[in-house]
């Protein structure tokens, strides 16, 4: 049975990698790429992926988003403000994520997957970094969404995102946070290629065992399918 997937923020770097992979899995997933405006649509046309501009993360109200998402089996939220000021960061990365999760519940969508950030809940980890505002948004979005008992959420928390070729491998998610705790400011290589994050999203969609789980992600030596499958 084909699963109908909505990818919100599909023009972003991780989401673009995800949609490219989903385009090769059309017997398994029917994908709709939600983007800000139609000028971003040509790359999805080339992939044979339908796109929609019906959801404006900031301006669309809850009812409109919920109505748009009716009939989907899963929603992947990978939108971000991209460092375009505090207002947009909090409107997209925080309120946008929470608003869409609420819409998912109203629309009776089975699953909601959120792309967040490594150790978002550990204030000491990120407070004295240039990304403080970004992490504040991620922290509270993650906390609000993960407390919703009526939502089948999965929160993926990748480390530093890299534009590198995929490796197909990650560290055991159960070990990632303890590894990150040992990283010093001089040695902070807790990175992962964006394409590997995209593959982890796909494997999470395939595995209901990832429901109501945080999945921290950094590069490693374990096959992604294997690592996600045993969560």
TrEMBL record:
<dbReference type="Pfam" id="PF13460">
    <property type="entry name" value="NAD_binding_10"/>
</dbReference>
<keyword id="KW-0413">Isomerase</keyword>
<dbReference type="GO" id="GO:0004769">
    <property type="term" value="F:steroid Delta-isomerase activity"/>
</dbReference>
<dbReference type="InterPro" id="IPR016040">
    <property type="entry name" value="NAD(P)-bd_dom"/>
</dbReference>
<feature type="domain" description="NAD(P)-binding">
    <location>
        <begin position="9"/>
        <end position="207"/>
    </location>
</feature>
<dbReference type="InterPro" id="IPR036291">
    <property type="entry name" value="NAD(P)-bd_dom_sf"/>
</dbReference>
<protein>
    <submittedName>
        <fullName>3-beta-hydroxy-Delta(5)-steroid dehydrogenase</fullName>
        <ecNumber>5.3.3.1</ecNumber>
    </submittedName>
</protein>
């Amino acid at each position: 049975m084909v699963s109908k997937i909505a990818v919100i923020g599909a023009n972003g770097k991780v989401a673009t990698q995800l949609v490219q992979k989903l385009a090769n899995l059309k017997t398994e997933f029917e994908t709709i790429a939600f983007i800000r405006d139609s000028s971003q649509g040509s790359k999805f046309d080339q992939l044979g992926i339908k796109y929609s501009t019906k959801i404006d993360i900031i301006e669309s109200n809850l009812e409109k988003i919920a109505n748009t998402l009716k009939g989907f089996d899963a929603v992947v939220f990978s939108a971000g403000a991209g460092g375009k000021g505090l207002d947009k960061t909090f409107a997209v990365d925080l309120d946008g994520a929470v608003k869409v999760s609420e819409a998912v519940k109203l629309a009776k969508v089975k699953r909601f997957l959120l792309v967040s950030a490594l150790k978002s809940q550990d204030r000491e980890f990120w407070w004295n970094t240039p990304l403080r505002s970004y992490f504040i948004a991620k922290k509270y979005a993650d906390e609000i969404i993960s407390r919703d008992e009526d939502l089948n959420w999965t929160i993926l928390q990748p480390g530093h995102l890299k534009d590198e070729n995929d490796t197909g491998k990650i560290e055991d998610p159960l070990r990632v946070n303890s590894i990150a705790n040992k990283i010093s400011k001089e040695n902070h290589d807790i990175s992962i290629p964006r394409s590997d994050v995209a593959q982890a999203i796909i494997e999470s969609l395939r595995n209901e065992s990832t429901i109501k789980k945080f999945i921290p992600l950094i590069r490693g030596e374990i096959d992604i399918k294997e690592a996600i499958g045993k969560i």
